[in-house]
Amino acid sequence: MSPSKVSSLDFDKFYNIIDGEQRGSKNIHHGVNPSTGEDLWEVPIATEQDCNDAVAAAKKAFPAWRDTPIAKRKELLMKFAELFGQHTAEFTQLLCKESGKPQKIAGIEVGGVVGFIQYHCALDIPEEKFEDDEKIVYTEYTPLGVCGGIIPWNFPLILSIGKIAPALLTGNTIVVKPSPFTPYTGLKLVELAQQIFPPGVVQAVGGNNELGAQLTLHPDVAKISFTGSIATGKKVMEASAKTLKRVTLELGGNDASIILPDVDIKKVAPEVVMGAFQNSGQVCVATKRIYIHESIYQEFLQEMVNFTKSIKVGPPEDGDNLLGPVQNAMQYEKVKGFFADSKAKGYKFAVGEPEPQPTKGFFIQPTIIDNPPNDSRIVAEEPFGPIVPTQPWSDLDEVIARANDTNTGLGGCVWGKDVEKAMAVARRIEAGSVFVNSWEKPTPQAVFGGHKESGIGGEWGKTGLLAFMNARVIHCYKN
């Protein structure tokens, strides 16, 4: 297919976007609607040449974009937010189809795109100045150049704009690679952006893991921002080391929630359930382990069970569902493995079926495992699906040690009426984001990243801007 300029949006046709133009491919694949198991629209698989062309266009566009005043870059970003806001209904429907998210939940993600852009446009690039009798020292921050953004399938829109907005604000150009499981909203987001930004400033190339590897190895890509699994993150870092690329890695987690004995049980239990099962548990920073004080364990667990039984699971078009399906067949089978292991080991299912029932989509009812052992798979590993363990605790030091006994450190929660005590516990959790009296709700106003093997660096917030920049210090000596 010959390239064509981007003008109006067609939400039934999808292209790679290279140098401001739509580009197809001889090789195509299909996303799958997780609610039905049926193929969705054709999507072009970018070739190595497509990847090279995109990087070349980004490199060519970089000097002019870097030198564009930040006020003008903000103006264009805000125009993009306004333009995107005119298409929220189409993006919501598209997100429902590719992800299976209920309409209300998909609408929240779509609405977050504008919020992300607006927040970043309220930021300024930091600078510092130091002066003594001899000299003035200016610390300035300059853009890196061409950035590559590798996007996962669980939040394809918000995690795309979470990389695009700060990259463009700080004067970089960016090539986005959507997940092959959810390519549609990301490709369409970047296609829409061509109506606002100069060619080459923001591009998208869709494909498989090989394409991601090409981006990480490309000598003209200055930074890779990757969100995904720990195993793939290690491969990204290894490949990026060959050219000493800057990397930001936001990887998996096994977040603990600690429930202190003074909580309002009826109020807090449903909130803890939401933290575990939001987006059907397909959230890197979702609650994955729940530690409840022994004095309230049975009552709290029963309230969790009551709320879990009220959760409606189904396809987006059913209206009032809280949860949709697991997004893809590969993850569906992985999650079912946790069910099979828990059943085989004889663990107690407080709520949920020991075996997910066959459906035409990848649906699993939310499930709670009552007090499995510390070394059980459901406690030690991240399911990334709607199944969660609970355990009682009695000694605060011991439960904090249990919460921290993991190679991950992405997030965590502490719940308690005594906020000062809860805050003191939160400060002992080895994680990048800890939430007190709330389930995990990352916000663009604060840097987001993990400790240990949950990642390197962080993005979002004022601090996160620096992930897209190099420090340059000018030492000016006085005459």
From TrEMBL:
Keywords: Oxidoreductase. Residues 29-473 form the Aldehyde dehydrogenase domain. Pfam families: Aldedh. Gene3D superfamilies: Aldehyde Dehydrogenase, Chain A, domain 1, Aldehyde Dehydrogenase, Chain A, domain 2. It catalyses: an aldehyde + NAD(+) + H2O = a carboxylate + NADH + 2 H(+). InterPro entries: Ald_DH/histidinol_DH, Ald_DH_C, Ald_DH_CS_CYS, Ald_DH_CS_GLU, Ald_DH_N, Aldehyde_DH_dom, LUC3-like. It comes from the Eukaryota. The active site is at E250. Transmembrane segments: none annotated. The keyword 4Fe-4S does not apply. Belongs to the aldehyde dehydrogenase family. This is aldehyde dehydrogenase (NAD(+)).
